[in-house]
Specification:
The structure holds two protein chains of two kinds. Chain A is mostly helical. Chain A contains eight helices and one strand. Chain B has three domains: 51 residues; 29 residues; 32 residues, no CATH class. In chain B, helix 1 packs antiparallel against helix 2. Classes of the chains: A mainly alpha, B mainly alpha. At the A-B interface, strand 1, helix 1, helix 3 and helix 8 of A face strand 1, helix 1, helix 2 and helix 3 of B.
């Protein structure tokens, strides 16, 4: 697969796009990209703290975390993963369209990405979390597992408060992730407006690339959350 | 500034690999592998994340500066998790524990019958 190189000079006035503090367009692009990666590094540590706490308590109360995981619906976790991978693909293709300055394709891909991102957040709130609420699995609101949930907890010889700890991790981690998704939807909307105005195709397409980096990062966080929360310790019981 | 425009086909190959790996990790969860269930799940997650970072996020074509940032992030993540775990899970190695370990407030849980945390009792 050969690589095609594209330079900004292709019929565009690159000097007009360079902010005055930069020597040239290349320096500006590298600085912007570096800044975004630096931000993502802080995000790694932000989520890292949650993952660290999760790993610690999972080892301390393994039965409770396994029981808690069995109370989650694997169909939701797996569908979210597929949804996010699809949205990452459309985002990557959107970045490619921006590089090639294809405005219509860019708009289509960004809209597709937005729709899948929105579907993720909507299904999570409307169906999964609301379902958890109806089953009495939300710590702080109504955490009181009953019926089959309680049987499952007893099956693993876990205690209810420790399963509650699992659900606190579950809601905080997926909640913070969902918040990132909502912010991502906002960024995509802005991108769409910019694309409509032709700012991307006639001007600086780096915007699309940076939003893409953020979107892919949020996808990666879910790639780890899915096995850790939904598949923990196997689902063969 | 030159941008690498990757062929569309590459994106679809990466996409297909990610979907296949998701199917494998979901399927593997239903097979009893003992402690290796977690290992398999994490190894697959790392593979998927690497594919996304290398190709969707174009790391393969970025400058060395970006690689340094990513390595720094991973290094600090390793410090964060590694030192926390090496603290908590080696506390029972000493008979009585250090003075600062004599507090049941450090970690919540059932009374262990001792002021020293006996983590191994909890499995």
């Amino acid at each position: 697969m050969g690589l095609r190189r594209l330079t900004l000079a292709d019929g565009h006035d690159s000097a007009a796009l360079v902010a005055h503090q930069f020597d040239d367009f290349e320096q500006q692009t590298q600085a912007d990209t570096f800044g975004m990666w630096l931000f993502l590094a802080t995000e790694v540590l932000f989520f890292g703290g949650l993952f660290c706490g999760y790993a610690l308590y999972r080892n301390l109360y393994f039965e409770a975390f396994t029981a808690g995981s069995h109370l989650l619906k694997i169909k939701y976790g797996a569908s979210y993963t597929v949804l996010l991978i699809c949205s990452s693909l459309t985002m990557a293709l959107g970045v490619r369209s921006a590089q090639l300055r294809r405005q219509t394709a860019l708009t289509v891909y960004v809209v597709l990405t937005w729709i899948m991102g929105f579907a993720f957040v909507y299904v999570k709130l409307r169906y999964e979390w609301y379902g958890d609420y109806l089953e009495g699995l939300v710590p702080g609101l109504n955490f009181a597992p009953r019926g089959e949930s309680l049987d499952m907890i007893h099956h693993f010889h876990a205690t209810v408060p420790h399963v509650g700890l699992f659900f606190i991790f579950y809601f905080v981690m997926t909640g913070v992730h969902a918040l990132h998704m909502v912010i991502g939807l906002g960024l995509l909307t802005t991108l769409l407006i910019f694309a409509k105005q032709g700012k991307v195709t006639k001007g600086n397409f780096l915007w699309v690339e940076l939003v893409g980096l953020y979107w892919h990062f949020v996808d990666i966080v879910w790639i780890f959350l899915f096995p850790l929360l939904y598949l923990i310790g196997g689902r063969y019981v | 500034m030159s941008e690498h425009v990757l062929p569309k086909k590459l994106y679809f190959v990466i996409f297909a690999s990610l979907i296949v790996l998701t199917a494998i990790t979901t399927g593997a969860a239903f097979i009893d592998l003992g402690p290796f269930n977690t290992v398999v799940a994490l190894v697959i997650a790392v593979c998927k994340a690497s594919l996304v970072v290398l190709f969707f996020m174009h790391l393969k074509y970025q400058t060395g500066m970006t690689r340094v940032v990513i390595l720094a992030a991973l290094l600090w993540l390793a410090v964060l998790i590694g030192i926390t775990m090496s603290d908590v899970f080696t506390r029972h190695w000493t008979e009585k524990g250090a003075p600062w370990q004599h507090s049941s407030a450090i970690l919540p849980g059932e009374p262990t019958g001792s002021t020293v945390l006996q983590l191994q009792d909890r499995g």
